[in-house]
Amino acid sequence: MGRVSTTVEGPGPTHRQIDLLAAEEAARALLVALGTDLGDEGVADTPRRMAGAYAELLTPVPFQATTFPNDAGYDELVVARDIPFHSLCQHHMLPFHGVAHVAYLPGERIVGLSKLARVVEAYSRDLQVQERLTVQVADWLDETLAPRAVGVVLEAEHTCMSLRGVRKPGARTVTSALRGLLRDDARTRSEFLALVR
Asked: 3-57 maps to which CATH number?
């Protein structure tokens, strides 16, 4: 193990240098500070596993946006519902997880459907807040496709709220980002919200 440098093409954190040895030493120090006996066989390798786990959670999988001409002139909403995602809260480094609903109203280009899930995945592989993640996905669609409308709704449970602090398991946070006709036209917005419920 050692310093690992990753450069990612596409959305999400584009360059993150991960020093696995330093992360392992930091994990070791944290565990000892929390009273863990690292001489116990069951946890002896935990610092290495912790470093690897965080490196994985914070490294987006690169992808290229595949777009196509909207030759058929499709002019209705395209909605991908219930896309599972997980991320790390930037305040506590605890996971939050849930589902994303992503929609757009095509203009001149359409996007490969898997990219709607991949963009959520790419931006979630960072220390995040749900509000920013929602906006990043919407902005990427808006910039990549120049569609007539974009809608993103994220529903998530935050373990920093369910496992600690107020301890309210099952509470879900909902955030949205609307662009174009989804923001400006009440009928289009109502259709979108009905489709993602």
From this structure: 1.10.286
Average pLDDT, the chain: 93
What is the sign of the dihedral through the CA atoms of 139, 147, 122 and 66?
A: negative
Q: How far apart are CA 156 and CA 141, in angstroms?
A: 21
What are the backbone dihedrals phi and psi of residue 28, each rounded to the nearest 5 degrees, phi first?
-60, -50
Residue keyed to tokens 């120049």? 146
Contact status, residue 115 vs residue 70, Cβ threshold 8 Å: no
Question: Under a CB-based contact definition with an 8 Å cutoff, are residues 120 and 102 in contact?
Answer: yes
- Provide the H-helix boundaries in 11-129: 20-33, 46-57, 114-124
Region 80-87: mean pLDDT is: 98
CA 70 to chain centre: 27
Domain 67-196 bears CATH identifier 3.30.1130.10: yes
Distance of CA 132 to the CA centre of its chain: 10
| 96 close to 155: Cβ distance less than 8 angstroms | no
pLDDT single digits (tens) 23-34: 999 999 999 999
What are the tens digits of pLDDT across the range 34-45? 999 999 999 999
